[in-house]
Amino acid sequence: MLINFLPVKAESRDTIKMLHEKMNAARPFWISLGIAATGLGLVGIALPLLPTTPFLLLAAFAFARSSPRLHGWLLSHPQFGPLIEDWRRHGAVSRRAKLLAILTMSAALLLTWAAGYSLAVLAVQAAVLCGVAAFLLTRPEGPRMS
After folding, report:
1. Which residues contact 58 (CB under 8 A, 6 or more apart)?
2. Are 136 and 98 in contact (CB under 8 A)?
3. Residue 21: its pLDDT value, please?
4. Which residue stretches of 47-94 are H helix?
5. How far apart are CA 109 and CA 142, in angstroms?
6. Alpha carbon distance 23, 65 (integer Å)
7. What is the pLDDT of residues 50-66, one digit of tens each?
8. Using an 8 Å Cβ cutoff, are 64 and 71 in contact?
9. In this predicted model, what pLDDT tens digit does every residue of 73-114 receive, in sequence order?
10. Is 93:86 a contact under the CB 8 Å cutoff?
11. How many CB atoms lie within 10 A of CB 14?
């Protein structure tokens, strides 16, 4: 067992062993949370009121605590990996992601209006979407590729 080879005092070794056992006990929770968050992130691609990036960030957080394989898959994914890395390194959202989000939110608001929903529903939806848009637009775009 790796714990026995650590250059630490016996009391510390016991603490590390206890933490390792706790992490193993929580592993199913973190994996389940990561899978659920990834699923919601995928659904969020099509549904404008369900944000994709926060769920992917949550999935990366959960997989980092439970599965190096799933964490690696998420970070190396061609679409999701760059979103997560930009956020982790710079708190950034790419210009393309911002544009797609704003266009999708606008389309959702127009569809709600075309479907004949009440003014109250439109007002609440518009307020929420404006808040999300304001948050997105105030995020940096990340480093420029040259």
Report:
1. 33, 34, 37
2. yes
3. 62
4. 52-64, 68-76, 80-90
5. 28
6. 8
7. 778 788 889 999 998 88
8. yes
9. 999 999 888 888 888 888 888 888 788 888 888 988 999 999
10. yes
11. 12
pTM recorded for the entire structure: 0.62
Q: Which residue has the tokens 């899978």?
A: 35
Structure tokens at 73: 């898959």
pLDDT at 2: 40
Residue at token pair 């999701």: 80
Cβ atoms of 70 and 61 closer than 8 Å:
no
Rounded CA gap, 61 and 19, in Å? 18
In the structure encoding, which two tokens stand for residue 14, read together?
């016991």
Residue 92, sorted as left (phi over 0), alpha (psi -120 to 50) or beta, turns out to be beta
Contact 101, 129 (CB under 8 A): no
Q: Are 105 and 48 in contact (CB under 8 A)?
A: yes
42, two tokens = 């995928």
**Overall size of the chain counted in residues:** 146
Is pLDDT of 16 > 60?
no
Contacts of 63 (CB under 8 A, 6+ apart): 30, 31, 34, 70, 71, 74
Question: In the chain, how long is the greatest CA-to-CA distance?
Answer: 70
